[in-house]
Amino acid sequence: MTSLALEHCLIEKNGLAPALIDLQHTLLDAGAAVATPPRASEEAIARVAFDLDHSRTKLLEDAIDELDTQLPPLRQFVLPCGSLAAASLHVARSTARRVERRLVTVLLPPEDSGLDPEHLIATAVTPGLLPFFNRLSDYLFVAGRFASHHAGAPERSHAFQKETDYQRSEPLFSRTSPE
Predict the structure, then answer these.
(1) Within 13 Å, how many C-alpha atoms sit on residue 92's CB side?
(2) What's the CA gap between 89 and 42, in Å, rounded?
(3) Per-residue DSSP letters for the chain?
(4) Tens-binned pLDDT, residue by residue, of the chain (179 aa)
(5) d(Cα 35, Cα 48) in Å, to the nearest integer?
(6) CA pair distance 127, 7, nearest whole angstrom
(7) Rounded CA gap, 138 and 94, in Å?
(8) Span 3-166 CATH architecture
(9) Among residues 18, 78, 156, 177, which one has the fewest Cβ atoms lying within 10 Å of its Cβ?
(10) Rounded Cα gap, residues 108 and 46, in angstroms
């Protein structure tokens, strides 16, 4: 999730690389928690318990606050853009959101989902997963803004458009194949 962003951050020397390396280790720990079946031994479950005290989530929150103090205030929606590091961090952010949504379906399936409890994650190891991934995506958003700011790239504000703004004389995407 963060490896491409890490490489771009190393090239751009924006100072985010150490945090991204730590995140890679943390993501492997989270993966171990997700991969642990509920029928695993108590010892195995204890070994992979993830962020039970929410300390990892708190570290992300502190890092968000630290980066945010170095950025101009966010007054409107912005488009993910800037440098290659910023773009890679925004891709990682969307991946973290997707992981969070998927974890919700696995951790909190509806009663009538038909999911076999044997295939669900051991709940003893997961209390910190959802808050962590929620804050991870927020961290990656702020880190993307930081990388863009560090590179001197301006933020592009999102302008909400009306339905009529999308009408064109020619289609933007053609449904016919090129000849």
Answers:
(1) 30
(2) 36
(3) --HHHHHHHHHHT-S-HHHHHHHHHHHHHHHHHHH--TTS-HHHHHHH---TT-HHHHHHHHHHHHHHTTS----S-EES-SSHHHHHHHHHHHHHHHHHHHHHHHHS--GGG---GGGSPPGGG-TTHHHHHHHHHHHHHHHHHHHHHHTTPPPEEP----GGGG--SS-SS-SSPP-
(4) 778 888 998 899 999 999 999 999 999 999 888 888 777 788 888 888 888 899 999 999 999 999 999 999 988 888 888 899 999 999 999 999 999 988 887 776 666 666 555 555 555 457 788 899 999 999 999 999 999 999 998 888 777 776 555 555 565 565 555 55
(5) 9
(6) 31
(7) 10
(8) Up-down Bundle (1.20)
(9) 177
(10) 21
Token representation of residue 168: 């064109």
Q: pLDDT at position 178, please? A: 52
pTM as predicted:
0.80
